[in-house]
Amino acid sequence: MADLLSDDEIETQLPDGWERIDDEIVRVYEFDDYLEGVAFASEVGELAEEEFHHPTIVIRYEEVEIRFTSHEEGGITDDDVNMAELTNDLR
């Protein structure tokens, strides 16, 4: 079980392009077309399965929103920050 990060830890560890919204970290990735976004969402899904840490993924016409939180811990942990960094590496 991972420990919750403090507000200061979240602020200093948040990867580029991500923002904190309540108990989640969130990023919207933009794409030139719908299918490019769908393919990216699929890659994120595969990564989530490998790491066993699953985000909320919202696919829109030219963007994909990714949200991470650690539900069992009730907020943001190192696992969420790590997954955000790995997700950034996919782009």
From TrEMBL:
Keywords: Lyase. Signal peptide: none annotated. This is Putative pterin-4-alpha-carbinolamine dehydratase. It catalyses: (4aS,6R)-4a-hydroxy-L-erythro-5,6,7,8-tetrahydrobiopterin = (6R)-L-erythro-6,7-dihydrobiopterin + H2O. One of its GO terms (biological process) is tetrahydrobiopterin biosynthetic process. One of its GO terms (molecular function) is 4-alpha-hydroxytetrahydrobiopterin dehydratase activity. Pfam families: Pterin_4a. Belongs to the pterin-4-alpha-carbinolamine dehydratase family. InterPro entries: PCD_sf, Pterin_deHydtase. It comes from Halorussus gelatinilyticus. SUPFAM superfamilies: PCD-like (SSF55248). Its EC number is 4.2.1.96.
